[in-house]
Amino acid sequence: MYDIMEEEVYEFQAAELSDKPCVCPQAEFNDKPDSSFFNDGVRKIDFILVYEDEDKKDFDKKQTFQRRKASLMKMGMELEATQSVIDEKLMFVKVHMPWDVLCTYAEVLHIKLPIQPNDLASRPSPWRFFSFITKYFYPNEDLIKKEAEYFTAPFEKNRLEFFHIRDRSTFFTPSMRSRMVSLAFYILSRAPYEIRGNIKKFGITKLLDSGVYKAAYPLHDCRFNAESKEEGCSNERFLLYEEWAHPKSFYKMQPLDLIRKYYGEKIGIYFAWLGFYTIMLTLAAVVGLGCFIYGYKTQETSTWSMEVCDPEIGGKIVMCPQCDRECKYWRLNSTCEASKKLCIFDNFGTLVFAVFMSVWVTLFLEFWKRYQAELEYAWDTVEFLEQEEPPRPEYEAKCIYERKNPITGVKEKVPYTGCGRCIRVSIGIGTVIFGIFLILASIVAVTVYRLAAFFAFSAKLRTQDLKELEPLKEYVTPQMATSVTASLISFVVIMILNILYERVAIWITNFELPRTKTDYENSLTLKMFLFQFVNYYSSCFYIAFFKGKAVGFPGDPVYLMGKYRNEECDPGGCLIELTTQLSIIMGGKAIWNNIQEVLLPWVKNLIFRYCTNATSQVIPRWEQDYRLQPFAKLGLFYEYLEMVIQFGFVTLFVASFPLAPILALVNNLFEIRVDAWKITTQFRRVVPEKAQDIGAWQPILQGVAILAVASNAMIIAFTSDMIPRLVYYWSFSVYPYGDHSTHTMEGYINSSLSVFNTSDFSSHSRPMGNISNITTCRYRDFRFPPGHPRQYEYNMYYWHVIAAKMAFIIVVEHIVYLTKFILSYVIPDVPYAVKEQIKREKYLTQVILHETNLKLVTKRLKPFSDDLIEHAKANMPMEEMELDF
Fold first, then answer.
1. What 3-state class would DSSP assign to 743?
2. Are 84 and 52 in contact (CB under 8 A)?
3. What is the pLDDT of residues 804-831, one digit of tens each?
4. Which of 132, 412, 585, 815 is at a distance of 20 to 30 A from 71, taking alpha carbons?
5. What are the E-state strand segments in 71-130?
6. For the CA atoms of the chain, what is the radius of gyration?
């Protein structure tokens, strides 16, 4: 759709003289710091280009710069150059697009603009009766006015009379104008220019990287912390800061329409998704908090916890050592506190909460689709993806081969042959697989550390001569010490591997040469998510599904690599360790991200201000913005990635940590304001981009939601102690009570621990010291006791538990998946009201087009029809003329 304008650019460049300087007026600063206009105070600044003007500047860069400036002027843009007030070498080129040029680009971009006010009555909000309360949770309507709703249609320059134009200066929003300037740079970038050596380069990115331009950005409105008093200067940035980015507004809903108007649809859809996700987390957080409170209140009355802490039960049960030789026998009641903490997270409320979260995640995704459809219509992005997306300049720069387009039948340039593409993709896949194996290797290394650390902690914490540790022995167990230190090491390894793989993933994606920007982002998204999925979740999956599952029994333990004895779970299970791992990774990740997002940009801006030797003189708006940090091309990608990884923690392992939703909620309340503060105060204004939805993240969220059902069912079955308790309660604990029988959990601890004869220890694993008074010890398993014909083999209780676990997984998964399917079918993706508005808008567009075409046809045929009537009158008899006319 850019062919016509590209031909004009090529004509411009063909007529250029390489040494001819740009005829560009040198303008001085007019001492208006918040002005976003040219010096005449009439023409609005739509974009800023910054370059360094030196006498000894590289000739090639200078020549390229002059060509680009000349091309912009020949495309109809108006330029005004101003010297920096701080650094004499810096020059700021202000770019303005006149009305005719704006109309042309709006037509090229198929921008939808108002044609008629929305005449469909909106349905009243169900919360309108609580408006006296809810009004305090919305931005101040006196500051941020609610925008009128219009039906829109793709703009056409020759039909201006049909569009709702009240003021030409505000008809195109600042984000639209910036997008149009970006399109101009894109068109210029597709027209290749040459430097010495006949090397062709494309794109504004290449011009920035090569140093031709120091920066290119649209202007912020004014200062974020003060309302501008200058006439004609908008204060949208100030309003965004006051009602959105300021910490005092953390409880308020986001002004999404103003965010979209100021930053564009791509930024707007991200904050809309983040806000919707946070609101939905509120319900999950309330239920999760209730589950936690229930567990906390029942920890003292839990039968199995009481048996562990009872001196007559847990105090008399001698447990087998959990490592070879150095570890000693220990009493079960020494884990009393750990058992109580486990009851907080491992109770029947957790099962209900896990099922609830499986339904919650379905409701979240389905209601988001509906909300997204409303935004698509309100923000005029319904048919955005149907427009042809142009190829990336980096892709076109490498096009050296020819192939026939199967659709158009025309030969076109491509950067590689079919075999070349296979090689590039294969290298990318190989790199991802290598990265995953690298993570798995780190998990093995951390596992080895766990085994060695547990041996060391067991030897020290059980030693009687360490008097200083005596007060901690009741609370600090070898399992807890090993778990906390291993979790911290895992977190550090995760952060290091993230930094390493991020650079590799970007390099591989650049090497693959995706054709469009969407293809590039989707390819990078898949690589980074696969890597971070394994990186963040692998340690949790290890604890949940592998640790303590293959340990053998004291007389015949299982060894890793033939040297390290496999780590066992605490008698209460591995669930508490999984909870510890999740809390450390989630908390550490949130703290690290906030340091990166808040502290680093602020420090960089502070250093830059001091290094520029700024004086007390007045600094213009464009130079104030230049001193801010540039918004990275992949900045929004990392924001999505951070939230999707958090979404995985909230859904995949919520059965072990019901507080995960409330932690995510608190983090997101800060995240929204931190991101808002960052892009409003610390970064240059983002070049607006169009976006219809959240892109490749939508199917990733759906995949995580499906996996979460199986993951939580398996955590309850294999990591939690809930299924063995239920089997004992319903099958092995029936006692007569009068004329009836009753179920009880009494005796469960004794039934869940098998007996081992200490004389059966091997010489390698036998504990050191005098242990002649201990003839038997207990261990966590379901095996026949010594002396039985099938001693140390699995007993019937074990097979009952295995059958119950498999049945539980199958039944829960089928019920939840069926519920998810029914909810997905019942809840439509597009609300009925939105469908009506879309149909109404299409009808109005067709009516306008039909009337316009009819007028044009009538206007063209009118002279011919007049001549035909006159000729008929001249040749027709009088009586027939009287009859017909």
1. strand
2. no
3. 999 999 998 888 889 888 988 888 888 8
4. 412
5. 78-83, 90-96, 112-117
6. 35
Report the alpha-carbon distance of residue 655 to residue 357 in Å, rounded.
9
Residue 198: CB atoms within 10 Å: 6
Cβ neighbours of 140 (radius 10 Å): 14
3-state secondary structure of 473: coil
Residues recorded for the chain:
885
Note the pLDDT of residue 875.
57
In degrees rounded to 5, what are phi and psi of residue 653? -125, 25
For 417-477, where are the alpha helices, taking DSSP H only?
418-461
> Exposed, middle or buried by CB within 10 Å (0-12, 13-18, 19+), for 325?
middle
DSSP structure string for 6-35: HHHHHHHHHT--TTPPP---EE---S-TT-
Q: Which domain holds residue 850?
A: 845-884
Q: Where are the alpha helices (DSSP H) in 126-251?
A: 131-134, 168-171, 174-190, 203-209, 236-240
Q: Phi-psi category of 613—alpha, beta or left, where left has phi over 0 and alpha has psi -120 to 50?
A: left
CA–CA dist 372, 365 (Å, integer): 10
- Give 472's DSSP letter: G
Same domain, 475 and 599: yes
The DSSP-derived string for 633-698 is: TTHHHHHHHHHHHHHHHHHHSTTT-TTHHHHHHHHHHHHHHHHHHIIIIIBPPPPP---SS-TTHH
Q: What does the alpha-carbon distance between residue 30 and residue 34 come to, in Å, rounded to a whole number?
A: 11
If one counts every other C-beta atom within 10 angstroms of the C-beta of residue 383, the result is: 14
204 and 265 part of one domain = no
Tokens (6 digits) for 619: 């600094």
Mean pLDDT score, 405-430: 71
Give the model's pLDDT for residue 277: 95
Asked if residue 806 belongs to a domain, the reply is no
Distances in Å between the Cα of 132 and the Cα atoms of 129, 255, 755, 818 are 8, 19, 67, 40
Amino acid at site 780 = R
Neighbours of 21 (CB within 10 A): 11
Contact assessment for residue 162 and residue 50, using Cβ atoms and an 8 Å cutoff:
no
What value does the mean pLDDT take over residues 333-353?
A: 84
C-alpha dihedral sign at 207, 210, 212, 217? positive
Chain segment 153-196, per-residue pLDDT in tens? 888 887 777 788 887 877 887 778 877 776 666 665 554 444 44
3-state secondary structure of 200: strand
The answer to whether residue 673 sits within a structural domain is yes
The 3-state DSSP class for residue 323 equals coil
Given CA atoms 860, 862, 865, 867 in this order, what sign does their dihedral have?
A: negative
User: How many Å separate Cα 759 from the centre of its chain?
Assistant: 58
Look at residues 724, 741, 758 and tell me which one is the last residue of a structural domain: 724
**The two three-digit tokens of residue 246, written as one number:** 């300021």
| Residues 569, 544: Cα–Cα separation, whole Å | 10
Q: Which H or E element spans position 150?
A: strand 150-154
Mean pLDDT of the region 264-270: 90
Give 270's pLDDT tier (boundaries 50, 70, 90).
very high
CA distance 178 to 173: 9
263 and 175 in a single domain? The answer is no
Give the torsion through C-alpha atoms of 541, 546, 547, 548, to 10 deg. Answer: 150
CB atoms within 10 A of CB 246: 18
